[in-house]
Amino acid sequence: MKNLIHDWFGSFFEGGLPESGGSMYLVTLIMFILTVALGAFMWWLTRTILLAIIHSFAHKTTTNWDDLLIKNRFFAALANIVPLSVMHVFLDITFYALPGFEIFFLKVVDVLILLVALVSTNRLINTMRDLVIEIERMKDKPIHSYFQVVKIIVSGIFIFLMLSILTDKSPLFFLTSLGAVSAILILVFKDTILGFVGSIQLSANDMIRIGDWVTMEKYGADGDVVEISLATVKVQNFDKTITTIPTYSFISDSFKNWRGMQESDGRRIKRSLYLKMENMKFASPEMIDKLKQVKILKPFIEERQAQIEAYNVENGFEEQGSPLNGRRQTNIGLFRRYTEYYLRNNPHINQNMTLMVRQLQPTSEGLPLEIYCFTKSKEWVQYEMVMGDVFDHLISAVNYFELEIFEKPTGSDFKLRSK
Q: Is 228 helix (H, G, I), strand (E, B) or coil?
């Protein structure tokens, strides 16, 4: 084939193609321009006709892998091999009398072919990644990290081949030379190596998945994990901003993963009411009679009052005297019981999980009465509504027990006291 083309060009000259002189350089230049033009024509042909045929065929099939190949522009990259291959064939004809130029341009074209092959391979790997991600049990796994490692290895192989072509040395020469520059490579690829190690540990220990709600105060992240790659983890915060966190930071630093809450039967409420201790006292008979009108509290008051009276009679405290003699009910104790019974009768509170109302260590801001329970709904908006309703009710009910919520004094409080 090459000889036929060579003879055809030579038929335009007496005695064949010129081997020296100015005519030789002119003919070489013309043939080089024609070779480049032919390559450009083949590039246009593959882009407008061949790719159109491939895309049309892919859209008609019911499979998804060919559509993903088009989406990742695999065929568009692979089509560049056609014009480069044509140019490779005609270069030794073009530079028939200039072997030095022929070797140089052949190396350039070979490197470009390898570069196209590298881009095509990476896009094929991207397509395989997209196919794997579509598998249901793989959607929440750090698949990006593993495919990025494969792309790095493949890119390294192709770079060695390119260097081998340019320097006329075996690829093994560059492979064995890695030992001498290993320290530099480790320094350059430190984040990549740490990210790879981190992604493997995250996956092996099932620490985070795509879709998990995570909180990492160090980086200001509070939202859902949307991507786990080799070097970074992307978290979409609830204000729709994106926080990018180094993958290895999830191994070296502490963070909170809310997946356990989302997979459980409820979401925890753990909040305290701070009550003024100066208002805490023994419940008077009038207060007890008034609180007996509260339906959920009446059985407890009657039962506890009977126990107290029996105890006082048995121990000789039945006579009226100091309230410190014998046992007495207190307004804080009654309010604590009322809070518990209120939660027990709340349809939005999960009764099968821990539920308690407890006193904490008194502070300068009053006595903390902690409500500890779990809502049935784990959805954020509904959870906040349930918690808000609970504390709206309890704060409003405090006055019926002759108690007060502690508040730090403001300017208006000082004005009232000054009057």
A: strand
pTM of the model: 0.57
The neighbouring-strand residues paired with 267 are 375
Tell me which residue has tokens 């024509």: 41
Taking phi over 0 as left and psi of -120 to 50 as alpha, with beta for the rest, 184 belongs to: alpha
Which amino acid is present at 137?
A: R
Distance CA 221, CA 234 (A): 9
Helix (H) or strand (E) holding 232, with range, is strand 232-237
- Tokens of residue 115, six digits: 């570069």
Structural domains in the chain, CATH included, are 2-134 (no CATH), 165-263 (2.30.30.60), 267-418 (no CATH)
Tell me the mean pLDDT in the region 253-266.
Answer: 85
Q: How far apart (Å, rounded) are the C-alpha atoms in residues 403 and 280?
A: 7
Give residue-wise pLDDT tens across range 70-88.
Answer: 888 888 888 888 888 888 7
Q: Mean pLDDT over residues 378-382, rounded?
A: 89
Q: Give the Cα-Cα-Cα angle 216, 218, 222 (nearest 5 degrees).
A: 30
Query: For residue 166, how far is the Cα from the chain centroid?
Result: 42
Q: Are strands 242-246 and 367-375 parallel, antiparallel or unpaired?
A: unpaired
E strand residue ranges, 89-220: 213-216
CB-based contact 353:266 (threshold 8 Å) = yes
Could you tell me if 93 and 140 are in contact, meaning their C-beta atoms sit under 8 angstroms apart?
Answer: no
Q: Strand 267-275 vs strand 356-359: parallel, antiparallel, or unpaired?
A: unpaired
> Residue 344 has which token pair?
């027990």
- Compute the distance between CA of residue 400 and CA of residue 403 in angstroms, rounded to an integer: 7
